[in-house]
Amino acid sequence: MSKNILETQGIGIQFGGLKAVNNVNFTAGEGEITALIGPNGAGKTTLFNLIAGFYAPTAGKVFFKGEDITALKPYQRTRIGLARTFQNINLFADMSVMDNALVGQHCRMTYDPISAMLSLPSKHKQEKASRKEVMEMLDFMGLADVAEEKAGSLSYGKQKNLEIARAMATKPELLLLDEPASGLNTQELDQLSQRVLAMRDRGITVVLIEHKMDVVMTISHKVMVLNFGETIAFGPPETVSADPHVIEAYLGKEDDEDA
Amino acid sequence: MKKNEMTLAQKIYRKSRLWVILLLVVIFPLIQIPKNGKMIFLADNYLLHMANISMMFAILTISLNILSGFTGLMSVGHIAFFGIGAYSAAILTTKAGMPILVGFIAAGVISALFSLILGLPTMRLRGMYFSVATMAFGEIIYQLIKNLEPLTGGTKGITKIPSIEIFGISFKDYRNFYYLMLLGLVLVIVLTQNLKNSRPGRAMLAIRANDIAAEAMGVNVVSYKLVAFMASAFFAGIAGAFYAHEMRYISPETFASVESASLLAMMVVGGIGSIPGAILGGAALTILPEVLRFIGEFRLVLYGAAVVAIIIFAPKGLGGLITWIDETLSGQRAKGSKHPSEAEAGEEAQE
Ligand SMILES: Nc1ncnc2c1ncn2[C@@H]1O[C@H](COP(=O)(O)OP(=O)(O)OP(=O)(O)O)[C@@H](O)[C@H]1O
Ligand SMILES: [Mg+2]
Questions:
Q1: Three-state secondary structure call for residue A198
Q2: What is the pLDDT at residue A183?
Q3: Mutate which of A50, A88, A103 to disrupt the B interface (most B C-beta within 10 Å)?
Q4: At what angle do helices A186-201 and A156-168 cross, to 10 degrees?
Q5: What is the mean pLDDT of residues B279-300?
Q6: Which of A99, B5, B104, B190 could form a disulfide with A95 if both were Cys (CB 3.0 to 4.6 A apart)?
Q7: Least confident of A90-94, A233-237, A253-257
Q8: pLDDT digits (tens, 9 = 90+) for B259-274
Q9: Any idea which architecture B8-333 has in CATH?
Q10: What is the DSSP string of A214-226?
Q11: In angstroms, rounded to a whole number, what is the distance separating the alpha carbons of residues B151 and B158?
């Protein structure tokens, strides 16, 4: 067992009377792929929002690299190496693919607005390095040939890939992927699995929300199952998929959902 | 990757377009035409003055664009920063006897400081509330200018503002001032363009496009809105200093809060976020009321109708029109739309 890069302690949030996430102790082992599954409305995205700082928890704490980050704002969490993608595509539609990804490099550059306006050497140096970095990410996600096109004009599959490329451009140590596979065709799905494995090989810890069980089972080290905001199972995929609670709450219903 | 071939004409156009425009605006005040057997300047003092004011408003519209066009925050009181700049320069050079250069810098800096004071408590608010705050600010500054008589001269304004002199060259003459103004405008364009294609500029554009995603990318949304607001106010203040030294007399009415609406119209007519559009919008709406002067009060109706027509028929403004013409002439029309030849087989999602 490697050490945990991410840990939530009794995390929870309440919207009015609804406990969207309740007392969840989630962990992600450094350099591993951890999956988060559960029926629609189970609280998966809400848990991501709590980890990334978009929601303030009503209970519990978040630890990243051993430090309590519960009070940090989302942009501060990105700076220390925690990045996320969005379930509903949240790109900068009117900006080019390249510029979208360059915004991801924002916190890895340092030059200020005055240097920007005066085009000082620090700007040129950092821009050059960032563009190289970003081009690599775009290439990795199969977007190099559309770098100059508007993000909003890409196909759905490519937009999903750009979501990931942009998050990767922040140089994260931990990457939260919210349903990256939804809406992809079989071939794209296969590429996605390969890419997630490649991210892990680069040393990035990945947490993945996913509905498709076959994807989850083949690539993840551990799986957490949420239902009505609560953890009903957390462990290696083999154990989780055999858990009667899980079969009842989630796997058993899969056929109805797809119908 | 094979882009569609460029024709020779398109190549020449792309290489020369900026230089041709620059050459035209540089020689414009020097063109002479024969009249009654004598050679006279095509551009008389009235025309030159109009050109100078147009360039001022172009700077002002660009400055509003840095806030509204880049980050999406709408300022409905932007004329206040123009006024703060004009009065700062005027007061410092007349009452305090400071050098003109000091007045210029102070105009920008004081204006930016005011935006900081207004921005700190309001940047966290939703866009709508920010707009209301800027509107109130515009009115407050107007009232202060009108009523702080010892400092601003009240309704009588400030007279005898010195004209600019650099290395013994006087810019009292409208023709000379034209070149100074042009230099100022070109500088503001270059600085703004540099900002747009940079780390902070992209952060601002990202905020306008999707502030939640911008935050997720590590952008401190509140502080970049503030930076945009300050840069915007700085340039508006500089435009104000130009105004004070060109007119050499300023009074409160120029900075009445309703004038902010004209600035918004200039930006929208030019196309929000477009720098060439801001220049055209600023110039067009400065000149239009003058051209329509001969029809009396009815001109305001026509002016309004013209603005509405542009918004309806050119939703991206004059800037969008220029981009369209430019792309057509340089053969880049197809860019942005997908080239079927470039789509990798099998890569496209079949949904
Ligand atoms: N900001 C919010 N305000 C109120 N209720 C919310 C908010 N965000 C989420 N919820 C509620 O919390 C519950 C969990 O939602 P969440 O989006 O986390 O589910 P999910 O597991 O991601 O589902 P899906 O698989 O459909 O994406 C839902 O009942 C949702 O309506
Ligand atoms: Mg979700």
A1: helix
A2: 86
A3: A103
A4: 10
A5: 83
A6: A99
A7: A253-257
A8: 888 888 888 888 888 8
A9: Orthogonal Bundle (1.10)
A10: HHHHHH-SEEEEE
A11: 9
pLDDT of residue A2: 63
Could you tell me the sign of the dihedral formed by the alpha carbons of A133, A139, A145, A148, in that order? negative
**Residue in chain A lying closest to B198 (CA):** A116
**Domain residue spans of chain B:** 8-333
Kindly provide the ipTM of the predicted complex, given to two decimals. Answer: 0.91
Q: Which residues of A touch B338 (CB under 8 A)?
A: 149, 153
**Which tokens hold the place of A57?**
């928890």
**Phi then psi dihedrals of residue A234, to 5 deg:** -155, 115
Which residue matches tokens 């890409």? A154
Look up tokens 């899980």; give the residue.
Answer: A246
Q: Which of A114, A45, A125 is nearest to A85 (CA)?
A: A45
Does B345 contact A at CB distance below 8 Å?
A: no
Quick one: which H or E segment has residue A162? helix A156-168
**CA terminus-to-terminus distance, chain A:** 39
Instruction: Write down the pTM of the prediction.
Output: 0.89
The two structure tokens encoding residue B84: 């703060």
CB contact set of A87 (below 8 Å; sequence gap of 6+): A45, A178, A179, A182, A209
Query: Which residues have CB under 8 Å from B302's CB, separation 6+?
Result: B292, B295
For residue B219, the chain A residues in CB contact (below 8 A) are: 75, 103, 106-107
- Nearest Cα neighbor of B229 from A84, A147, A44, A113 is A113
| Continuous H helices in chain B | 8-27, 45-71, 79-94, 100-122, 127-147, 149-152, 174-196, 199-209, 211-216, 221-247, 259-270, 275-291, 299-313, 317-329
Kindly list the protein residues that place their beta carbon closer than 5 angstroms to ligand 2, a single-atom ion.
Answer: A 45, 87
Neighbours of B249 (CB within 10 A): 12
C-alpha to C-alpha distances, B6 to A148, A199, A244, B324, nearest whole angstrom? 18, 41, 67, 17
Spell out which residues of chain B touch residue A112, defining contact as CB-CB under 8 Å.
200
CATH of domain A1-81+172-259: 3.40.50.300
Q: Where are the domains of chain A?
A: 1-81+172-259, 92-165
